[in-house]
Amino acid sequence: MLAGGARGITADFAAALAAASHCRIELLGRTPLPARPEDPELAGAADATALRALFAARGEPAPAAIEREVRNVLAGREVAHTLDRLGRLGSPAAYRVADMCDGAAVAQTVKEIQAEHGRIDVVVYAAGVIEDRLIEEKDPESFRRVYATKVDGARALLDAASQLPHGPRTAVLFGSVSAVLGNRGQSDYAAANDALAGLGERWARRTGRRALTVHWGPWAPSGVHGGMVTPHLAREYARRGVALIDREEGALALLRELAWGDESATSVVYTASGW
Ligand SMILES: NC(=O)c1ccc[n+]([C@@H]2O[C@H](COP(=O)([O-])OP(=O)(O)OC[C@H]3O[C@@H](n4cnc5c(N)ncnc54)[C@H](OP(=O)(O)O)[C@@H]3O)[C@@H](O)[C@H]2O)c1
After folding, report:
1. Can you list the domains of the chain with their CATH numbers?
2. d(CA 273, CA 215)
3. Of residues 254, 163, 164, 267, the one with CA closest to residue 211
4. How far is the CA of 61 from the centre of ligand 1 (A)?
5. Is 59 helix (H, G, I), strand (E, B) or coil?
6. Residue 91 CB: number of other CB atoms within 10 A?
7. How far is CA 31 from the centre of its chain?
8. In what order do the strands lie in the sheet with 267-270?
């Protein structure tokens, strides 16, 4: 089961997992999955620019509302694409809407998956948001959103997993190199990823199971939505001489770590170059 696994880089990891094992995969995220096929006009609007034009032509006057609709359509398409991709790779896959910041919803979702399938072997916690700003410009609500999405969400998932009769044998947590080495504008995100690793470590001690936090360096963006590294950020990293993780190699590196890595290591750092 992968929280935050239907979009971004975790969808690539889910695909690597599917290709290697054909295991059943449950994905969790906030994006609602579009209930029916898109009408032909909407389906014909392939990218953000075309969608903006379509929603404006349909009479939506507010730019902010148009942007929201565009984001929702693209996110829904991304989830649908991931499910389709996993199915084609041989993994039966399902998606459930759950906000990881809602502890009751997380507990309920874990219960439902357990009831449906009888067991959860591995949990991956990859939900995260960034709202980068220098600390003097950061408002407490923003700090709370970034921190809670990682820490409260992961705690809720690990707690719910601990209640299961045969809980997952492995928990994988997606952290960030910013927790280890810091990054400008990311005091909240760095603190959250550091706390995330601490949660995993304590869970492993308490349960005797394996917890692994992967502190990733930046991944190369791809396709419509390639994760937190936007094309603009990618150019900024290039200017700083920071190489980006190849998407296929990143996903395979984690599979290799899980298969052959030292099980007592509770966190690892994976980057494509120095920081
Ligand atoms: N991309 C990188 O280079 C990079 C580097 C270091 C670490 N990471 C870590 O890797 C993870 C994935 O990053 P990404 O780049 O793929 O980012 P992303 O594309 O923004 O994906 C974030 C994922 O988290 C989900 N999510 C966010 N808030 C959530 C919530 N409250 N409840 C449930 N799901 C939630 C999102 O789905 P919905 O929007 O549908 O909720 C999405 O699937 C993050 O934890 C990030 O910190 C990424």
Report:
1. 2-30+92-270 (3.40.50.720)
2. 13
3. 267
4. 30
5. coil
6. 20
7. 12
8. 93-97, 25-29, 2-3, 122-125, 170-176, 210-216, 267-270
> What is the average pLDDT value for the chain, to the nearest integer?
95
Mutation to probe ligand 1, out of 9, 79, 193, 214 (largest number of atoms < 8 A from CB) = 9
106's tokens: 């997380």
Angle between helical axes of 103-117 and 140-162 (0-180°, round to 10): 30
Nearest-atom index, ligand 1, CA of 126: 45
Number of residues in the chain: 275
Distance 59 CA to ligand 1 centre (A): 32
Give per-residue pLDDT as tens, 46-104: 999 999 999 999 987 789 999 999 999 999 999 999 999 999 999 999 999 999 999 99
C-beta atoms surrounding 11 within 10 Å: 28
Q: Mind listing the pLDDT tens digit for each residue in 165-219?
A: 988 999 999 999 999 999 999 999 999 999 999 999 999 999 999 999 999 999 9
User: φ, ψ for residue 215 (rounded to 5)?
Assistant: -85, 95
Q: Which of 1, 2, 10, 144 to mutate to test the pocket of ligand 1 (most atoms within 8 A of CB)?
A: 10
CB-defined site of ligand 1, < 6 Å: 3-4, 6-10, 28-31, 75, 99-101, 126-129, 149, 153, 174, 176, 216, 218-219, 227-229
Three state DSSP letters for 21-47: HCCCEEEEECCCCCCCCCCHHHHHCCC
